[in-house]
Amino acid sequence: PTFKLGDAATTSKVQIKHLICACTGMPRQDLEWLMEFKNRTPAIVVTSLGDMQPTTKFGELFQYSNVMAAAAGFLGGHVAFPKLELGKAYDDAMRTLVFAPLGMKATTFDYKLAQTGNFALPHSIDLAGKTVPAVHALNYSAIPVRPAGAAWSTVNDLLKYVQMELAEGKLPDGKQYISRDVLLARRERQVAIGKDGAYGMGLFVEKAHEVNVISHGGDMFGFHGLSLWLPDHGIGAVVLTNGDLGHALRSQFQRRLLEVLFDGKAEAVDDVTLTRKNFEEGLAVANKQLTIPPDPAEVGKLAARYHNAALGEFVVVKKGTTLTFDFGEWSSEIATKKNPDGTTGFVTTSASFTGVELVPKAGDAKTLVLRDAQHAYEFTAK
Fold it and tell me: Are the C-beta atoms of 204 and 189 separated by less than 8 Å?
């Protein structure tokens, strides 16, 4: 009853499917959970939707919101276990109603448990183009929004889920795990994505080269994965990577699968190679724009600490010629960048989170502005 999405008019129109259809026009606003997550709880995440407002009408434009997806999961957990805290309810619901019935014994939301024994750590590419450990601390930002994608899993476990999808809700023993009608309703197109694609309820639905493909990927820092299935052919596949360039492999994995299955023109391998080449060329261009160590004159204009109501605060650490912005949960060394408009930005250089730029407002370093595609966040000196 206390759920709110934007203003009262928007809230009154929301149905359960709208939380997971990426069709409400709700912008991502990922920075708000990526940069301030230490004390964030599922309840805070769900409540934050009341301060967000769609930028387009329902069904008009595909815009994926991790916070909306998180709210959908927490709502489901609350229905299953109404007396439990939202996060605990969701964890128990997934463990007892999804992972256990499907036999996904290695899948968990318990980060400590997952990082024991044989497990993969994330990697990224540094400014020199070398593979290095990613800033793994940033992956803990997903815990408060974990229905959007914070489970640790394996290829074998995820294939059990894909197998259930291909069997239209049946388990390997023939038992109906979930109603066929309910399962297939999730594949109904809710909002268009280009000419041949769409988003259903938590699923991408497309006709790729006349082949129906259902899929969903996931991305965190140094981790990229994809699960997909061809419902008309009884074929499914999963790919998981622990390197940031894995997104290039993932993006062409589907193409290569279709090439092999249907004797398609071989393009995927060359496309992966081209993606790597373009990445390296882009990295070289970006490096030329950065000043490392940062310009001491610009560094001297900075305050000791900055604060933003939505994104929290960071501390400016100067050690020799090195400049670091410490956001509490994570930190990054900083370069300066001279922009065409005459401003000088302060740019993160840590692997996985490279290129985030804070620019002095109107040339005054007492206020630094961080922008994403649809928002401008002002950090003011404290």
Answer: no
Amino acid 373: pLDDT: 83
Looking at residue 84, what DSSP letter applies?
Answer: S
- Look at domain 8-269 and name its CATH class: alpha beta
Question: How far is it, in rounded angstroms, from Cα 189 to Cα 206?
Answer: 9
CB 32 within 8 A of CB 65: no
The 10s digit of each residue's pLDDT in 208-225 is 989 999 999 999 999 999
Cα separation, 308 vs 186, in Å, equals 38
The yes-or-no answer to whether 8-269 and 292-381 have a common fold is no
| Residue extents of the structural domains in the chain | 8-269, 292-381
DSSP 8-class letter at 106: T
Are 98 and 92 within 8 A, CB to CB? no
Q: What global pTM score does this model have?
A: 0.92
CA distance linking residue 83 with residue 151, whole number of Å:
23
CA 271 to chain centre: 23
Q: Select 292-381's CATH number: 2.60.40, 1.10.1060, 2.40.128, 3.30.200.
A: 2.40.128
DSSP state of 176: B
Residue type, 262: F
Cα angle value 139/203/77 (rounded, 5°): 65
**Contact criterion met (CB below 8 Å) for 135 and 350:** yes
